[in-house]
Amino acid sequence: MKMAKASQADLDMANELAWLLEALEKRCLPEVLSEQFGDDEFDIDNPEHVREAMGLILRTLRKGSLFRVTFGMLVLLDSDNEIVDPDARTLEVHPKFERCEQARQHLEAVVRRLVDIMERSDLDKSVSAGHPLPTLKEWNEAMHEARAVLLGKTGEPMFLGEFRP
To answer: Which residue segment(s) compose the domain that 134 sits in?
Structure first.
């Protein structure tokens, strides 16, 4: 699922709002209101405290989009999106990304091996550099390894099969 990414202003507003709500829940007046009332304690039965606190909440909300912050987090955490590890108790990248990185590293090694074999196959360069020409067995092994990495276990190209990003 795609949605608008929360801006820095959205994130700042959400943090400010969370701080404000938690302070009020603990019966503490935010600094701007405690200066106004000359008191640090929020009294929910005091209509002036409630009116000013609600005004502060609404002014804070106008600084950004709380929806983009909260819905964005829901999208990130949605197990169908496979972005965050559903089994971790902390925010961690989904394990499929580790598998993709391992496949990328393996593919890079195979490509380097093939490039080395191809360079050694250039008769003029190999002879002048004193390198032995690759054997048919080296070519065969490298090609089988490349095929296995590219096609994976499913026989499909890995971007369509098990390593789908």
So the answer is: 95-151
Q: Is 102 found in the same domain as 72?
A: no
> Residues with Cβ < 8 Å from 40, sequence gap 6 or more?
28, 29, 34
User: What are the pLDDT digits (tens) for 128-150?
Assistant: 677 777 788 888 888 888 777 77
Max distance between CA atoms of the chain, in angstroms, equals 93
Is 163 inside a domain boundary?
no
Which residue in 151, 142, 135 sits closest to 114, CA to CA?
142
Decide: helix, strand or coil at residue 28. Answer: strand
User: How many structural domains does the chain have?
Assistant: 2
Provide φ and ψ at 135, rounded to 5°: -85, 165
Rounded CA-CA distance 3/81 in Å is 12
- The answer to whether residue 134 is domain-embedded is yes
Is residue 160 situated within a structural domain? no
> pLDDT tens across 76-104, in order?
999 888 899 999 999 999 988 888 888 78
Cα 165 from Cα 163, distance rounded (Å): 6
The pTM assigned to this predicted structure is 0.63
The token duo for 62 is: 């106008």
